[in-house]
Amino acid sequence: MTNSMQETDQSDVIFIIGTNTTWNHPVFGGMVKKSVKEKGVKLIVADPRQIDLANCADIHVRQNPGSDAALLMGIQHIIVKENWYNKQFVDERTEGWDEYVKSLEFYTPQKVEEITSIPAEKLYEVAKLYATSGRGALFYAMGITQHTHGVDNVKAVANLQMILGNYGLPGTGVNPLRGQNNVQGACDMGALPNVFTGYQPVTVEENRKKFADAWGINVEDMDDKVGQTVTTMVNNAGDSIRALYIMGENPMVSDPNLTHAKEQLEKLDFMVVQDIFLTETAQLADVVLPACAFAEKTGTFVNTERRVQLSNKALEGPTGAKQDYEILAEIAKRMGAVNFPDNPETLFEELRQLTPSYKGMTYERIEKECGLRWPCPTEDHPGTPILHVGKFSRGKGLLVPIEYKAPAEIIDAQYPLTLTTGRLLQHYHTGSMTRRSKVLNEIKPSGMVELNDIDAQKMNIKDGEKVRVSSRRGTIEIDALVTSRVKQGVVFIPFHFAETAANILTNDALDPVAKIPEYKVCAVKVEKIA
Q1: What domains can be seen in the chain, in order of their start residue?
Q2: For residue 519, which of 432, 454, 422, 446 has the smallest C-alpha distance?
Q3: Which of 44, 329, 425, 438 has its CA 20 to 30 A from that of 191?
């Protein structure tokens, strides 16, 4: 996030797209609701479903799944045409204007209505409210990233905020809501195929030398090539990937096209799973390493607003379970590593010495100041609540032309409905923790397919009846939830439930840049079971 969660009160208008915030980030969702209801902040929600925040929004538009780029660029088409953009910000802090404006010609209100199903006049209302209300914050999540054009969607978001000057000020910014509790921290630590800690590229020799010197190895022994992403590793299992080490992830529920994923994992010579429970993935492993849960370990977490927070162990783990760093350190020593850091303090000290954005952080400061937001380059630096104040890290912000791309799979006569997936309030990710909670599992013990009431009537399907949902990749049987929450022609299935796994159906087509799968849109059919 460029800004901070606490700034919702300082926004004049908030744009929510691709995030069911009150279910997936309920604490922050409550903050948004409070700002709207008590502070008079305007709210725009773009979501195919009637999510909770839509009920308190000034405007709710229900775009077709997979049409987000057209929606966002169509809004910009109107803003530029009506001269509502921030000319001073565009002139002083951006580049690429001419090519960008040329790309907007495609996104006329009529064309966008054709793609998104949003009426042209409603699109105009959204553009006017967001562009003329003052400071605007935009929040998004995986609803716009998990597409074969997810990168384009995010670039469209960045374009919108740049032409309105919504950077570098409280209550503004581009603010992705991370989908897991420490995914920001994992990325910061270099758990990506192309960077060291703090997003320092592995392709830069100076970076490789710095880390080689710190680790006591020769820089010539370090690979200068970018590695594979999670999705490409699964696809290459049994070929260029012969072994996998999986920590705290359950791809046998969370990966798209699960039948294919299982076939690929079974091609491996060796698979290790490190987790707190014997998950669906762990059951396929050659070796399972029992790890401690969050309350049983000490270390830092980084939340979605870049805030680094210290978590101290509150409980002892079960017999035989170890903290993640203990397991990794033990493996490293047995592989011949000398002086491998084997406690949280020495690990964090190495991190801050090698990572400019973390340089000024210490355990003492983090604990005393209730977390620090990077970049924090020196020990007297207060941390950075707002990014891009005065200028962007690259100098001028680049306005990017966006060419509209349809989803990889669209509906047809055989598969006439569009499936989108997501989470429920009561469960988290693959359910490996929440479905072991007696209370949560009693509230939501099984999966269901949300089916529009008009579609259900046409198919003679009643609420609660079991139905068959099929895609080109597989079939599941699941209870129907007949509701107006989901728009006509669209169905929604939560992916938490292994026994009615939504990801048996989803498409494993990838964004060509980020290699993220298209979880959020694929073609399916729903059939009544006699």
Answers
A1: 5-177 (3.40.228.10), 183-373 (3.40.50.740), 417-528 (2.40.40.20)
A2: 422
A3: 425
